[in-house]
User: What shape does this take?
Amino acid sequence: MHCTDICTCSYPAGDSSLTRMTMEAGALGFDTIVLPVEQPAVIGNVSVLPARVIETRHVREVIRDLGRTKEGQVMIVMAGDASFIRGVVPLRGVHLLAGVERQRKNAFDHVSARLAAEKNVGVTIDLFPLLYLKGLQRQRVLQRYADLLTLHRRYEFPFVIGSFARSILDQRSVREMTLLCALFGMEKEEVIRGLTSLPGVLHQLLPVRVVE
Amino acid sequence: MKPRPPTMRIKKRYVLAAIVPNYPSIDSKVLYVAIAEAITGLYGDGAGAALHHAVVFAGDGYLIARCSRGSEQFLATALAVVTEVDGQRVAFRTLATSGTIHALRRRMRQPVERPEREDLEVDGVIYEVHVRESQKVDLIEKGCNSQKLLFLVEQDLQER
Assistant: This one.
């Protein structure tokens, strides 16, 4: 089982160095960690995959940024409104759609879900808000995730679960992630699939073309 | 007073968790309040009361919490969402669940004694240096209300 965690920043942007976060990920049961760094690396038994996070409101800017992608980078696009999501998901080179829980309830609907399934684009489950939000705000995030889970069960688009940690104190083990995902009704098998689905998303299978 | 017969007692389970970072000495009562808040936040007062939770041990970088049998999953989830105790940033890493405290104590490792290092200045801030196992180095800002933490490894310090 190759479990992958997604983290968002390391020292100096965060308080934990890349090596320390990677060591911690290894101790918590992960063998791959995704971080916004320049080069891939292997520290101990844990592989570091470089990622690029695109946060914009315009599809045109996403297309421009995708053109500057280096090979081997995991492209994470932060979600916007419904039209933005529908415009971004079919783009070639987009691997993950993150931050869906921050948008309105109808931003990611059945049309986007079907598109994500067709294009093999992963939708992320970010555990960071579950740790740091309280009360009504956390309830809203749990509702969004429950909605996404319903769509995932119907349309079978890839789910990618990550801690989106900014520090080693935000990283959680595979077991803890399973418990946290149970809060919005996710089964253990679904969590394991969500933690191991990134390689399938990165190696997107293109439709077969007949060349005469 | 006559003690309650064993069949009438609530069956208990104990959960062992590591406290990260392990140097702040945190009082059991403060830990209990933080965990109680997390349980109430996640499951509400009714379910929280049914958990019968308590902190039976806190020290040496570990915590042993008690709950009623069958609710250890809820307690472990609550431990996972605790991010701050008494103004200090912490994380609890659940390690094991058992029916006895003795079994959990056997799983607790004694902290490794490391030679003390001099204080270090990073970006104009003076940090206390705590060297841990596997070349891990925790830096904690010096001062009475120290909040700033840095988690590095020996190699990062050498590169500076």
Remarks:
- Chain A touches chain B through 28 residues (CB under 8 Å).
- Residues 130 and 211 of chain A are 49 Å apart (CA to CA).
